[in-house]
C-alpha cells in the first residue's frame, strides 16, 4: 500500500511456501486479498513477490505474465518489489547455506536476476510512477569467497546486471534497482563492508569503465547509472544482529551515496543473560531448515557463529557472553519473548528516522519463519498475524 510519504509497504510472499509458479499464484490470490482487506481496505495493496528460479521460468511461458497482471488488477493488487535472494527451494527442505547459492560469481545467478528484472518491468504499474527493486544475496556466503579473484568476479557480474537494468530503463522507462542484502556470515554482512565494497568496487573506476563499454555511456553517465541501479536491501533483523547503530548506519550509507532500495522490516532474538533457562528456551529455536547465525558481544568485541549448534558448542568451559543476538525472524509485534527479547527496538528506531526523512521507497515485512516458530509465538491465522505486523508498522509510522 502507498503511504502518506510516498513509500510503499507490503510483506514478502516468501512467507508462503511456493516454488512453482502455480504455487506462487495460489499463495498470492489466497492470502494477499485477505491481508489487504484487513489493513488497506479500499486501497490498492502492493505485493512483495518472491520468485524462485523455477517459478520465474514458469512465468516466462506464453501469456502467463499478462494473465497475472490482469489478476492483480482484479484483486486491487500491484507488484513493486521482488525477492530474488533464494534461487531454489526455501520451504519444507534443508536450506541452510544453500540459500546463498548460486551466488554472484555464478552465471546462473546473473541470468536469474536479469530475468527477474525484465519480469518486474512488465509488472510495475503502467503509469511509470513506481520504481522497482529486486533484493539479492550479499555477494556470496563468506566461507565460499576465496580471495580477490572471487571478489572481482562478483563485481563484474553485478555490473553486467546493471547494464541490463540500463537497457530495461531505456526500453520501458521503468527504473529497477538491484538491492544487495547484507547478512551475518556473508561476504557483505556489515555496513562497513557494504560501504567499502560499493566504494572500492561497484562504484569504482573499473565498474565505471565496464558499464560505459557495455551500455555506451560516458564516464559521468556510467557512474550515475551505477548509483541509480545498484543499492542495498537493509534487513533490520540482520543489522540489529550485527550490533549496528540505527542512526549511524543510515548516515554512513547516505554519505557513501548508497541507496537503500528496500527496507526489510524484521526482528531477531536478543539474549542478554545466557543462563540455563535462556539456553533451554533458545534450543527450541534450532531447526534443520534455516541458518540461524549468532553474533556474540563480550568485553573483547564481537564473535560470530554460523548457526545455533556451533554457538551452543562454544559455551562449555568459558565465561557466559554479555549478549547474543540471533538471526531468527520473529513476529515484529512481539518484544517480550519470555526469558529473552527481540530486536524490535532497532525497528522502532529506524521507523522513527523514516518518519523524519524517508529511508527507503520500499518497506517490506519479512517474517518468513512462521512454519518453524515455536507454537507459543504463533498467535492466530497466518493472514491475521501478517496483518497485525503491517498494522504495527503503520502505527509506528503515524506516531
Number of domains: 1
Give the radius of gyration. 20 Å
Helix content: 40-55%
Name the CATH class: Alpha Beta
The CATH architecture category equals Alpha-Beta Barrel
Number of strands: 13
Structure annotation, total helices: 14
Helix- and strand-based class?
alpha/beta
Strand order of the largest sheet: 1-13-7-6-5-4-3-2
Q: In terms of per-residue confidence, which ranges show pLDDT below 50 for 5 or more consecutive residues?
A: none
3D shape: globular
Order of helices and strands: EHEHHEHEHEHHHEHHEEHEEHEEHEH
Euclidean distance between termini CA atoms: 18 Å
- CATH topology name: TIM Barrel
Strand content: 15-25%
CATH homologous superfamily grouping: Divalent-metal-dependent TIM barrel enzymes
Overall mean pLDDT: 95
Q: Report on the biggest sheet.
A: 8 strands, parallel
What's the short story on this structure?
The protein has 14 helices and 13 strands.
What does this structure look like?
It is a single chain. This protein has 399 residues and is an alpha/beta fold. It has one domain: TIM Barrel (Alpha-Beta Barrel), CATH 3.20.20.150. The protein has helices at residues 21-39, 53-59, 64-74, 107-123, 148-172, 191-202, 205-215, 219-229, 236-241, 246-255, 276-283, 308-313, 344-356, 382-398; strands at 8-11, 45-50, 77-83, 132-136, 176-180, 230-235, 260-265, 267-271, 294-298, 301-305, 323-330, 341-342, 362-365. An eight-stranded parallel β-sheet has the order 1-13-7-6-5-4-3-2. It has a five-stranded antiparallel β-sheet with strand order 10-9-11-8-12. Helix 1 (21-39) packs across helix 14, helix 2 packs across helix 4 and helix 7 crosses helix 8 (219-229).
Amino acid at each position: 500500500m502507498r503511504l502518506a510519504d510516498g513509500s510503499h509497504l507490503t510483506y514478502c510472499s516468501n512467507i508462503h511456501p511456493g516454488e512453482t509458479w502455480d504455487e506462487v499464484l495460489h499463495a498470492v490470490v489466497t492470502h494477499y486479498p485477505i491481508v489487504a482487506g484487513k489493513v488497506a481496505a479500499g486501497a490498492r495493496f502492493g505485493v512483495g513477490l518472491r520468485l524462485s528460479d523455477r517459478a520465474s521460468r514458469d512465468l516466462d511461458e506464453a501469456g502467463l505474465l499478462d494473465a497475472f497482471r490482469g489478476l492483480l488488477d482484479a484483486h486491487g493488487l500491484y507488484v513493486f518489489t521482488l525477492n530474488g535472494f533464494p534461487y531454489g527451494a526455501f520451504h519444507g527442505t534443508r536450506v541452510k547455506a544453500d540459500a546463498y547459492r548460486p551466488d554472484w560469481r555464478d552465471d546462473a545467478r546473473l541470468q536469474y536476476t536479469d530475468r527477474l528484472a525484465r519480469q518486474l518491468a512488465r509488472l510495475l504499474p503502467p503509469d511509470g510512477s513506481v520504481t522497482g527493486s529486486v533484493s539479492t544475496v550479499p555477494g556470496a556466503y563468506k566461507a565460499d569467497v576465496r580471495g580477490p579473484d572471487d571478489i572481482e568476479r562478483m563485481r563484474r557480474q553485478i555490473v553486467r546486471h546493471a547494464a541490463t537494468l540500463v537497457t530495461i530503463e531505456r526500453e520501458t522507462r521503468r527504473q529497477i534497482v538491484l538491492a544487495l542484502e547484507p547478512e551475518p556470515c556473508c561476504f557483505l554482512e556489515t555496513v562497513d563492508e557494504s560501504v567499502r565494497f560499493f566504494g572500492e568496487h561497484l562504484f569504482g573506476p573499473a565498474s565505471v569503465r565496464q558499464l560505459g563499454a557495455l551500455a555506451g555511456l560516458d564516464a559521468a553517465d556510467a557512474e550515475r547509472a551505477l548509483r541509480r541501479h545498484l543499492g542495498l536491501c537493509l534487513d533490520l533483523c540482520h543489522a540489529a544482529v550485527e550490533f549496528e547503530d540505527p542512526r549511524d548506519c543510515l548516515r554512513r550509507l547516505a554519505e557513501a551515496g548508497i541507496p537503500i532500495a528496500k527496507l526489510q522490516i524484521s526482528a531477531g532474538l536478543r539474549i542478554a543473560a545466557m543462563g540455563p533457562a535462556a539456553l533451554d528456551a533458545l534450543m527450541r529455536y534450532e531447526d534443520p531448515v534455516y541458518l540461524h547465525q549468532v553474533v556474540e558481544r563480550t568485553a573483547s568485541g564481537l564473535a560470530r557463529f554460523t548457526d545455533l549448534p556451533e554457538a551452543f558448542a562454544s559455551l562449555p568451559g568459558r565465561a557466559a557472553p554479555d549478549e547474543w543476538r540471533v538471526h531468527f525472524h520473529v513476529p515484529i509485534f512481539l518484544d517480550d519473548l519470555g526469558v529473552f527479547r527481540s530486536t524490535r527496538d532497532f525497528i522502532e528506531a529506524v521507523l522513527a528516522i523514516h518518519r523524519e526523512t524517508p529511508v527507503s521507497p520500499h518497506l517490506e515485512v519479512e517474517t518468513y519463519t512462521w512454519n518453524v516458530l515455536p507454537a507459543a509465538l504463533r498467535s492466530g491465522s497466518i493472514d491475521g498475524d501478517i496483518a497485525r505486523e503491517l498494522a504495527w508498522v503503520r502505527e509506528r509510522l503515524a506516531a
